[in-house]
Amino acid sequence: MTCPVPGCAHHHVYSTAGNLAAHTLSVHGWTDPFDTRLQAYLEPFGFTQCGRNCRSGAGVGASWLRFSVRCNVPTQHLDCPHYAQHKHRHEHRVLLGKEATKVLPLLELRKNDGEDSLAFHVRAVVEQMRGGAVAGTEVATARRLKAMLASKFVGRPASDLPSHVTQLQANILQCSKLLREPVPQVSRAMRALGRGQRFDVRSEADQALVQSLFPQGDALPPPSFAETRWAAPRIDDDAVNRLIKRKDSLSAAGLSGHGIKAMKGLRKRGRHWVTALRLVSQAVADCWFTGTEAEDAVAACALTLVAKPGGGKPRPIGVGEAVVNLARTVAAGALLLRQIQASHPLVFGLASTCGTDACVALVRAKLRAGPGNVAILLDFSNAFGSLSRVAILKGALQYCPQAVPLLRAAYATDGLAYYALANGETASLRATRGVRQGDSLGPLLFMLGIMPLLEDTRAHNMGATLSSYLDDLQQTGPELEALESFKYLQARLEPTGLSLNPSKCRVLALAGLSDAARGLYAQAGLTEVVDSAGLLGSHIGRADSTLEFLRDQLITYRQRLDAVCACKDAGVSVQRLYKVLHYCCMASVAHLFRSMLTARSLKNSRWGWRQPR
Questions:
Q1: Strand residues in 315-471 grouped as ranges (E)
Q2: pLDDT for the residue numbered 119
Q3: DSSP 347
């Protein structure tokens, strides 16, 4: 090893890391023994350094140790957090390296696989991974992954919508042409995407408006000793194969352009290419590249700014790299989401069948449980973009530790988000708070961030029921208990980074508020009191208003069915009519009538939901 300082007059060869550290201390003034410059130079040689909180005795934290391939270290370091983290990462590198060595000879390139093709890049990354925990493997692999995820977003025209919109737009145009009205069941954001209603960024004021959607906050702290015990969920080839097969070929590809369509092409070549894709995505999930030159490329995303009805701030939809999202999407499926849902039955937004229907039925049942019961419907300002990542980390360690590596893999750095300007140029910003709308793990990470707050509020006031569907919260119970629960939650929002939007918070009281309670609610900023309201696509209110709502909806659906029949007489194909029937009629009708079920009938239904006591 030689001195890492360019032009050093004492550029000698040093036999040990300790001699090199002593040289940089005396000659170059690198006074901190944990200097990151020295650490970055020594780690490729297999050296690492005990952390400041090493429990092995005085002076050990200032020493450098060379971990062998088998992780042989002095026994006094076995409880050192830094060594535990190194050993954990080492074992996973060895495991993935063995698999990469086994599959690499099967990854044969074709004549049309250029240096910019997904096949070429995946094979290059796997080739570097086969070294496992050999010194320098991680640096070389990170360099190849960075080349693979190189952004091609710069210069993208502003009118070019992400490719995943194409099929949706075709469905909407078909339905709109046949039924002569927008498709009701598609969300407003996706409807805007389908009609190409992009938010045009034309001025500095528009850029400032976009920047306001990404407030700055505290970065994630360094990994603690508690985190070293947890690893990202293991994914297998079958899960990746099913995911690629199920995904639409027109799904957005991210900044690099390597999307699901290219993965489907690799999948057709053989099972070994699926294994290669799984190895790359698993390495990302295991935080191989956190702290390397590929870190920014892994965390970057392309923003599609969707104009909201009525103007105002746009809705930012982030599209990350498809290869990076493989492990995250699989983990968001069977394992993590169901784990949270099973232990927290009042969290309806995670892997719960008919979650919106169950949430609406619970609020309706609690309102009818007492003559003076009310429901406070909460609304947050930019909830997904404002949530503190420190709060997400704390919630993940408490409720779902396996999500911690996935959180650090995508949000350990202030990820760059690119968006197109109206003049065809490209702008970027850094997000230090919140989770991206469009991230497959976004709902899980959001709920982990607010779950400690929800549990604390529920434990404080047992008289009111606090239910949630992602960022839609409802506090239901007697009017005074519900108000006390609201005040308790509002007073503890600051650590989460969230803030309520008072103008959109409503109080649903079927019989109205008492005179004494009305003044107390006004003092708390809750001035909008209604006797009926829409909730998650359904309706809650008095019997007469609910019947009127149902009557209007049924008349609308009858008109749509008549339109479908008229289209059949006009010679429209059965396949297209079935698509119209599915998208425009049946989905909305099924949701409406499921959400109108009472708690008792929902308990006995095939969805198996149970009302908490």
A1: 315-319, 373-378, 416-420, 426-430, 465-469
A2: 92
A3: B
pLDDT of residue 154: 56
Q: Is the pLDDT of residue 277 over 70?
A: yes
The average confidence (pLDDT) of the chain is 75
Q: Are 545 and 521 in contact (CB under 8 A)?
A: no
Q: What six digits make up the tokens of 604? A: 């006995």
Contact 193, 316 (CB under 8 A): no
The order of strands in the sheet holding 465-469 is: 465-469, 472-478, 373-378, 506-508, 529-530
Amino acid at 427: A
Between strands 532-535 and 538-541, the pairing is antiparallel
What's the Cα-to-Cα distance from 578 to each of 51, 140, 249, 575, 603, rounded to whole Å? 63, 52, 22, 5, 31
So what's the pLDDT on residue 375? Answer: 93
Helix 260-269 × helix 322-333 angle, to 10°: 80
Structure tokens that stand for 26 in this block:
């005396």
- Measured distance CA(165)–CA(294) in Å, rounded: 29
Are 387 and 450 contacting, i.e. CB atoms less than 8 angstroms apart? yes
Residue 106 is predicted with a pLDDT of: 93
Partners of 377 in the β-ladder: 474, 506
Residue 258: CB atoms within 10 Å: 23
Q: How far is CA 40 from CA 3, 219, 297, 304, in A?
A: 13, 21, 19, 36
pLDDT in tens, 346-361: 677 775 567 788 888 8
**Alpha-carbon gap, residue 446 to 174, rounded angstroms:** 35
CA distance 421 to 199: 9
Residue 171's contacts (CB-CB under 8 Å, 6 or more residues apart) are 183, 194, 579, 583
